[in-house]
Amino acid sequence: MPTLVVKCRQCGRSAPANEFILDHIYRKMVCPMCIKDRHEKEKVHEEFRLERETKSQKSELLKPESQAINLKKDFKLMQRPLQQEKPIEDKQNQKRRFKCTKCTFEFPYNPATKTPLRCPYCNYTITYP
Ligand SMILES: [Zn+2]
Ligand SMILES: [Zn+2]
């Protein structure tokens, strides 16, 4: 049975009759090439739309400079308490006192660094607990 070749009324190209499809966009029987063309056009449209959406999203993220400044401020605020805590810690360390085991002279010492190494009064080498 020979294949009936029909001329497409949409694009004028010839295609086998059994390959013609009723397309809801063209609202008529069109050849497979027309369907392919339409799909490719839609794909391009879709890609263009997505590209525009991502671009607009990016520009929205980049636009508010004030937000970046706010973040910097927040960062400074987060850093400040840490800088304040350190001297307090040092003071607490300085408050620690140690009595020389030899001469019983009492002096402040740093338990973290274990200094001074020797008693400031009798020069006795201190062994901290
Ligand atoms: Zn066609
Ligand atoms: Zn001592």
List keywords for this structure.
single chain, 129 residues, alpha+beta, 6 strands, 14% strand, binds zinc ion
Topology:
Blueprint: E1 5-7, E2 14-16, E3 21-23, E4 28-30, H1 32-62, H2 65-95, E5 97-99, E6 106-108
Antiparallel strand pairs: 1-2, 3-4, 5-6
Bound molecules: zinc ion (ZN) (2 copies).
Describe this structure in words.
The chain is an alpha+beta fold. It has two domains: 5-59, no CATH class; 91-129. It is built from two helices and six strands, in the order ββββααββ. The strands form three sheets. The protein has a two-stranded antiparallel sheet. Strands 3-4 form a two-stranded antiparallel sheet. A two-stranded antiparallel ribbon has the order 5-6. A hairpin with a 6-residue loop joins β1 and β2. One zinc ion binds at residues 100, 102-103, 105, 119, 121-122, 124.
Q: Tell me the fraction of residues in β-strands, as a range.
A: 5-15%
Oligomer: single chain
- Total strand segments: 6
Query: Which of globular, elongated, flat, extended, rod-shaped describes the shape?
Result: rod-shaped
**How many H/I helical runs?**
2
| Mean pLDDT over all positions | 82
Low-confidence stretches: none
Largest sheet strand order = 1-2
Helical proportion, percent range: 40-55%
Describe the largest sheet.
2 strands, antiparallel
Element-level helix/strand string: EEEEHHEE
Rg over CA atoms: 42 Å
Number of domains: 2
